[in-house]
Amino acid sequence: MKTIYFEKDIPRILVTKFATKCCNPLLFTGLNAVKYNKNIPDPPLPAPNWVRVKNICAGVCGTDLSFFKATTSTDSALEPIPTSKRTYLGHETVGVVVEVGPEVTGFKVGDRVTLREYMSSCGNKDIKEPCRFCRKGNYCLCENYGEPSPLNLPDVGAGFGDSFIAPEQQLTRIFDELTDDQAVMIEPAAVSIHAVLMSPPKKGDKVMVLGCGTIGLGVVQAIKIIQPECEVWVMERIKPKQEFALKLGADHILKGEPYEAVSKATGGSRVFTGMNNNKMMFGGFDMVFDCVGGAWSNTNCLRFLRARGTFVKVGHHMNSVRFDETPIWWQELKIIGIDAHGMEEWNGRRLYTFDLAQEWIRDGIYKTEGFITHRFPLDRYKDAFRLMLKNPPELIKIVLDCE
Fold this sequence. Notes:
Layout: E1 3-7, H1 10-22, E2 34-37, E3 50-60, H2 62-69, E4 86-88, E5 92-100, E6 112-115, H3 122-125, H4 132-135, E7 163-167, E8 171-173, H5 180-183, H6 186-198, E9 206-210, H7 214-226, E10 231-235, H8 239-247, E11 252-253, H9 258-266, E12 272-273, E13 279-280, E14 285-290, H10 295-303, E15 305-313, H11 326-330, E16 334-337, E17 343-346, E18 349-352, H12 353-362, E19 372-377, H13 381-390, E20 397-401
Parallel strand pairs: 9-10, 9-14, 10-11, 14-15, 15-16, 19-20
Antiparallel strand pairs: 1-2, 1-4, 3-5, 3-7, 3-20, 5-6, 6-8, 12-13, 17-18
Helix pairs in contact: 6-7, 6-12
């Protein structure tokens, strides 16, 4: 088995952190904590309900880049939680089942599948008494996140490799009507859809989306699908992404000085400026979907909201950040955190976000054309990360071809 993973090796992690801050070329050497191992023996299926998947392709996500840069910090809430020595990269997957255990009931050899439960959960660790959240299909909120698997797991792999193994409950079957390029967009589409379903806009709401990467562009689409009678502005500095957002349903692009633009768009107050160019206004958007994350977006998006507005936190970094919390209590704001996807309630049905995303993609409701802008073979994964670090204007989604 060939697979790419982040190794929990403290010296390598420290070197990777140093390279990220001070010497980017070091990231592309053998000193990086992300390793590509081409010589792992194909592991046996560790239990009768497991399957083996041959990868076709996998999308590259900002989370994968975070591992490549080792951005997780020791003051993050993630740090105290015990993890395995290796974190296998690649969760936006398309693959084909090539082997099934004797107790597998949901899949057969030849089925196309994608990883659904990527983060540590009862399902992918094959914990037989799942926690209350996993029982309800909300695997990303697993209360057994820090607990070990009852199985003696070998190297299982993930999407960045030629194959991987997984318990069947970790996977979703890909609809026959979807192409591989559509299917590789299921996971990011599910993130965007889940974000909007967690806090749907109301009719007539003025909504801002910060950042038009893959997730932000998906949020624009999901907002207009779920509540077409709201008005959507996007804040994005790259012109091709502005144009793509308009094509996908955004109504306006915020231009110029951010606070003045927000005030003009929403009929807010004049903009007040204090020391060190510190700015504040009153009025603002009913909702802001932050698809960027970090100190700047936290501080400013909270100030772009009207009193009792809603801040939907989609973008994130795996470290703690400093921001001004004053607007939260002063303006009585609501903050909604978003953790990937799970189980949804939609039009009287209860279904996984992955299945809803597939339905919308299949039916032409959710568009995926134009998202994939670059492709690399698996062996050139470093070139994919190099391109992500450069972030050229035309870049949206990179896909690694694994066959």
